[in-house]
Amino acid sequence: MLVDSNVIANAGATALFAIEEVDKIANKKPEHVYIMLGSDDLLMPVDNPKKDYLENYAKLIKKIKEKMPKAKIHVTSVTPVTKEAMEREPRYKNIPDYNEGLEKLAVTEKIDYIDLSSIFEEQQNLYSKDGIHFEENFYPLFLDHIKEHIDSSDNIDGVME
């Protein structure tokens, strides 16, 4: 069961800023930590945003492992955006490249990578007006999708978005 108080969702969250939330997550003593980040990292005004993103993500994972060595860590792919959002912000075209890097990082760090792309292939009406964020109907699909990655007897203890 997902409890709202176990969800940490901060507007503008990046992998770097998420590192600051690890103590808050650790206090909840989760068995599973789900991390959904990336679209804001794509837009960071740095020379190599993908490199920074993956380095900060690795630091985030390391800190979670240090603070919660028994927790199973799951990272989700960076979610796609609509064609219109991509036209407004061309850097969103890099999402597949970020996901490739994130998937490799998950292998290196021996954590679970969850590809969310099938949700968007099956459903087109998930986006809010900005074409980046989601309507409420996305979240039950998201939860159903990630439930496939845990034992049916486990609870979903924490989600970071």
The number of E-state strands comes to: 5
Radius of gyration: 15 Å
H/E topology pattern:
EHHEHEHHEHHE
Biggest β-sheet: count, sense, barrel?
5 strands, parallel
Total count of domains: 1
Strands across the major sheet, in which order?
1-5-2-3-4
pLDDT averaged residue by residue? 85
- The CATH class assignment is Alpha Beta
Shape: globular
**CATH topology term:** Rossmann fold
Main structural class: alpha/beta
- The helix fraction, in percent, is 40-55%
Instruction: List the uncertain runs.
Output: 152-161
CATH superfamily: SGNH hydrolase
How far is it from the N-terminal to the C-terminal residue, by CA?
17 Å
Alpha plus pi helix count: 7
Beta fraction: 5-15%
Tell me the CATH architecture. Answer: 3-Layer(aba) Sandwich
Features of the shown structure:
SGNH_hydro, Rossmann fold, 10% strand, alpha/beta, disordered C terminus, 40% helix, five-stranded parallel sheet, Lysophospholipase L1, 161 residues, SGNH_hydro_sf
Summarize the structure in words:
By secondary structure, the protein is of the alpha/beta class. It has one domain (7-160): 3-Layer(aba) Sandwich (Rossmann fold). Helices cover 40% and strands 10% of the residues. The protein has 7 helices and 5 strands, in the order βααβαβααβααβ. The chain has helices at 15-18, 22-26, 49-67, 83-88, 95-109, 117-122, 138-147; strands spanning 7-8, 32-35, 72-76, 112-114, 159-160. It has a 5-stranded parallel β-sheet, with helices on one face. α3 runs parallel beside α5. The longest helix has 19 residues, at 49-67. It is globular and about 40 Å long. The two termini are 17 Å apart. The model is unreliable at 152-161 (pLDDT under 50). This is Lysophospholipase L1. InterPro entries: SGNH_hydro, SGNH_hydro_sf. Pfam families: Lipase_GDSL_2. Residues 8-136 form the SGNH hydrolase-type esterase domain.
